[in-house]
Amino acid sequence: MATPLAVRLPPALRPPLLSSKLSTSFPPFLSCPPKRLLRSLPTDTRGPVVVADDGMYGRKQVVSLTPQLYHYVLSNVREPQILRELREETSTMHGSQMQVSPDQAQLLAMLVQIMGAKKCIEVGIYTGYSSLAVALALPDSGCLVACERDGRCLEVAKKFYERAGVSHKVDVRHALAVDTLNSLILSGETNSYDFAFVDADKRMYNEYFELLFQLVKTGGLIIIDNVLWHGKVADPGVNDPKSVSLRNFNRKILEDKRISISMVPIGDGMTICRKIADTSAQGLGCV
């Protein structure tokens, strides 16, 4: 097979591991990082590729998305018209970068369909792009609890729920997510939800996760967004509160034996967690 080819991107567009000076530093939670884990392959004009330099990884080649390649990925997303319209309206709003990408939303919807999910929760819906994708994937009898504290964003979301004909599936909660999740627990809804998605305050991820763990049934999914945080989690020189919080959270769920996990490099990174043990059955408390 021919050696994959690569393009030299401007510094602002280069992924962290493919910058002109390749970093070999690793986060402190990797106790025994392999030496020279990644290296860049020879380049010319097509697309950057990294490969595990440690033979134990089988010299697996991994594509790093260029703008051109990402455009190709997006061109292969089946985005419903109503979602496209919501995305375009949101693009004119402050904070539009918080909206999940179409490829992420498509993955979330597919997971809901694969699971046959009927009860879902989303923490932090912004203007509703991901929640609308999930609601469209739910059966007519399904329900999505949509948690959002920003009333202006909620008005946009509710408008599109109505236009898409899914308002009857969405239980909008205009409040702090922690309060909503605690109220669901107190009302006896533990171990009853199939699916949860979190895209909210990064410093609250641990608390959100533990509350959702109580609400999601064994075999259910909790999906966490922004786990790669623009590459900052892998840079030990970056220690702002959000980066440190996400780094610590990633380490925690890596070591959490109550779940199986897969960190997926889509969007800004998503970790899919499947609940495999019930705390009440094992006597484990929640933080």
UniProtKB/TrEMBL annotation:
Keywords: Methyltransferase, S-adenosyl-L-methionine, Transferase. One of its GO terms (molecular function) is O-methyltransferase activity. PROSITE patterns: SAM_OMT_I. SUPFAM superfamilies: S-adenosyl-L-methionine-dependent methyltransferases (SSF53335). Signal peptide: none annotated. GO terms for biological process: methylation. InterPro entries: Cation-dep_OMT, SAM-dependent_MTases_sf, SAM_O-MeTrfase. PANTHER family: CAFFEOYL-COA O-METHYLTRANSFERASE 3-RELATED, O-METHYLTRANSFERASE-RELATED. Belongs to the class I-like SAM-binding methyltransferase superfamily. Cation-dependent O-methyltransferase family. This is Caffeoyl-CoA O-methyltransferase 1. It comes from Rhynchospora pubera.
